[in-house]
Amino acid sequence: MTLTQLTYLIAVDNHRHFARAAEACFVTQPTLSMQIQKLEEELGVLLFDRSKHPVKPTSIGEKLIAQARTILHEAERMQQILQESKNVLEGPFKLGVIPTITSSLVPRFLNQFNAKFPKIQLQVIELTTEMILEKLQRDELDAAILATPLNERSVIEKPLYYEPFMAYIPEDHRLGKETFVTNSELDIDEILLLNEGHCFRNSVINLCRTSPSMGQKNVDLESGNFDILVKLAKKGYGMTLLPYLYAIDLSKEEQSRLKPIADPKPTREISLVYSRAELKIKVIEELGKIIQNSVPEKLLESSDQVLSPVHEL
User: Fold this and answer.
1) 163-260 domain in CATH 3.40.190.10?
2) Global pTM?
3) How far apart are CA 25 and CA 7, in angstroms?
């Protein structure tokens, strides 16, 4: 039994397809299949049911795959101990980030991270919260930045900052002349929302405490990014809510349409999330410090109204 065979074993479990697993491991499918077969022969059990499409681990295969993950974790931990003893951190670091954070946060800390860790190849991958949690459990990500709390026992959540919501309201809107708005004035049917799958959408719906009505509208518009929502609001299709870091990057003209929301300010908690195995923990801890140094200091203070990123029905 070798670490390479265990790596191939986990790749097949992650992808549930021999060809895709081989591609992910940068080997040919015959090479990977042969090594899995040798491992099965050595153990005297079948690890995968190849008659299923996609392939599935057998009952004993599931238990052995879980143990293989533990073995590879510990092997990687040995490498980290060696690196840290030499005060050299290098290699790939895969960071998942939800789409509503990427554009406003990543450019703020990227240069500082690269200066701190010149030998680390940072790979930023934009993913939904659901996909991030799946990949963390499969060890396909080293860490992630997303809205919390998620109450997931399989990961550790380290809060980084608390980002208030801002209202973007066109001048001809019923709230366009107000200097600020209150939670009670927000009508979910007037708010332009992100598409399903974005946790920011869920937080907005939870803020208003009512789901969008099923009544017919002249135009029912949703989008996958804030830029489109702002443009639609400017065209008179409603108002929208924006996270603070995105809002302060708007043009001066667009910032003139921003309005604060009265206390208690609706806020999302942004956290650094990682596996309980705590691999690459030194890099994760330093990344957290770098991110906190890159955002306005007032965002580091805890908020009274943190909105859940999970859709509460």
Assistant:
1) yes
2) 0.78
3) 8
